[in-house]
Amino acid sequence: MFNGVQVEPGNELPVHHLKNAPRVTLNVDPESTFSIVMIDPDNLSRKNPSVAEWLHWLVANIPASNILEGINGGQHQQPYGSPAPQPRTGDHRYIIVLFEHQGRRLQVPNTIPELNFR
């Protein structure tokens, strides 16, 4: 949920709704651990897509209790960076993926490049 607006696949939100990190809640197995990532695959130019991905948010090793209540724990490897698309770059897609770990914590590097994140 961004700024009180429920997010559904494919819906369009104005950039001002994305200023703060979304509130993510799900009914999950209380023993699970998760990681969440948000990217903009259209950051630079659709004409040069090989360098387009931009990492806006990455939180690793989130306990299930924090998914049930809204993400506020885990390792914030990349703090939430609100979208600010450059002028004349067209519409941008923002993709949020929540990964459930298979019984182990992720080892994530201390620094992760925002540009060309893959």
Concise synopsis of the structure shown:
This protein has 118 residues and is mainly β. Helix content is 5%, strand content 24%. It has a four-stranded antiparallel sheet with strand order 3-2-1-4.
Written account of the structure:
- The chain is mainly β.
- The chain contains one helix and four strands, in the order ββαββ.
- It has a single domain (15-100), classed as PEBP-like (Phosphatidylethanolamine-binding Protein, Alpha-Beta Complex).
- It is globular.
- The two termini are 25 Å apart.
- The relative contact order is 0.26.
> What's the helix count?
1
Helices and strands, in order, run as EEHEE
Would you give the CATH topology? Phosphatidylethanolamine-binding Protein
CATH architecture: Alpha-Beta Complex
Report the radius of gyration as a whole number of Å: 15 Å
Strand-pairing-aware structural class: mainly beta
Query: What is the strand arrangement across the widest sheet?
Result: 3-2-1-4
The 3D shape can be described as globular
Mean pLDDT: 80
Euclidean distance between termini CA atoms: 25 Å
Task: Give me the count of strands.
Answer: 4
Major sheet: 4 strands, antiparallel
CATH class, named Alpha Beta
Number of structural domains: 1
**Superfamily (CATH H level) name:** PEBP-like
The proportion of residues forming helix, as a percent range, comes to: under 10%
Model regions low in confidence, pLDDT < 50 over at least 5 residues? none
Strand content: 15-25%
